[in-house]
TrEMBL record:
Transmembrane segments: none annotated. This is Nucleoside phosphorylase domain-containing protein. GO terms for biological process: nucleoside metabolic process. One of its GO terms (cellular component) is endospore-forming forespore. InterPro entries: Nucleoside_phosphorylase_sf, SPL. GO terms for molecular function: 4 iron, 4 sulfur cluster binding; DNA photolyase activity; S-adenosyl-L-methionine binding. SUPFAM superfamilies: Purine and uridine phosphorylases.
Length: 248
């Protein structure tokens, strides 16, 4: 299982670096990249903001071997109007506040926590609403989908501030504590994504049973694309079943 982590700040990344024994590479200097001994787990520090996040993802792709069935995770803190500090949320919609573009991460597995919409801002704000706020997810996601598979690209956010406890109370020490305290959620998410990654077929290969369905029924070109996507999802959910027999 190959995993690519992306964090804006070192204090967000430290618990992940420690948990997976990642070592900073001396080969890369545009962005700091940390690697496991077997190179299967990597982490890049993006810096703050969507532009930096997008550049970091692109740089990471150029420096580290990536493929279709790799896992891409943006881990970091976020604000929300009333979610309790320290709670985790998996992002199911990303909105770029500046250009109003939206993305919908494909959550076709059992998430280890509740899901929430997120707005990526150009600058920090204390005008909390009932959604997550960060500054990197839109840049991360729109670049990562160019290199990876959307079902394996996700943002997990830990609530660091809300309408009762504002950003002024955030410091490096408590950010590191928040992330470290939720490593179990990160690992549960990875376990779900590993199962999914094992069912993602790289490149243009089609999922199991695809050709059998084409032999039995007629599909338009658009229906063929839908069939491929649905079979992938069904094979994940019913991995021990013979799907072709289920259609009889």
């Amino acid at each position: 299982m190959t995993i690519h982590f992306f964090c804006a700040l070192l204090c967000e990344a430290n618990p992940i670096i420690e948990n997976y024994n990642l070592i900073k590479s001396d080969k890369y200097n545009l962005f700091n990249i940390y690697l496991s001994a077997d190179k299967e787990i990597s982490l890049t520090l993006t810096g703050i903001g969507k532009t930096n996040a997008a550049k970091a993802v692109n740089y990471h792709h150029e420096c580290v071997n990536t493929s279709d069935n790799n896992i891409w995770l943006n881990i970091g803190i976020a604000g929300h109007k009333n979610i309790e500090i320290g709670e985790t949320r998996l992002v199911n919609k990303i909105i770029d506040d500046e250009d109003k573009l939206s993305w919908y991460p494909q959550i076709i597995f059992n998430p280890p926590c509740d899901c929430e919409d997120l707005v990526s801002l150009k600058s920090p704000s204390t005008k909390y609403k009932s959604c997550l706020y960060d500054m990197e997810a839109s840049g991360f996601y729109q670049m990562a989908v160019k290199f990876g598979t959307s079902e394996l690209i996700h943002s997990l956010k830990i609530i660091s501030d809300n309408s009762e406890k504002s950003m002024s109370m955030i410091n490096k020490k408590n950010v590191e504590f928040l992330v470290k305290n939720k490593m179990n959620v990160i690992e549960k998410l990875l376990a779900e994504l590993e199962v999914l990654a094992n069912n993602i077929t790289p490149g243009n290969r089609k999922p199991k049973y695809y050709n059998l369905f084409l032999e039995k029924w007629h599909f338009t070109q658009s229906e063929k694309h839908m069939l491929s996507s649905l079979l992938t999802k069904l094979l994940i959910r019913y991995s021990d079943e013979n799907l072709f027999e289920m259609t009889e």
